[in-house]
Amino acid sequence: MDKIETYRTTGTCCKQIMYSVNEKDELTYCVFIHGCSGNQQAISRLALGKPIDEIIGKLKGIPCRGTTSCPDQLARALLAYKEKKAAEQQ
Fold it and tell me: Is 64 helix (H, G, I), strand (E, B) or coil?
């Protein structure tokens, strides 16, 4: 199994996202901790197996209660993952 990453969210009911990305940069695991279970399960199921750049492009900037949302937080988590990966490769 791919390494499970953890992202602490801000501005949402969800407090944390646990996810993993494979060597092809596809999302292979995604679980939201707390928040609206049905919506978060839907987000996870729709995103699994997709390239992270596609997920970021579709979810980044979606608002809910203010300027962010659970989908936006997933996009932010994946952006942070990409930045971390790029820094490790330098």
Answer: coil
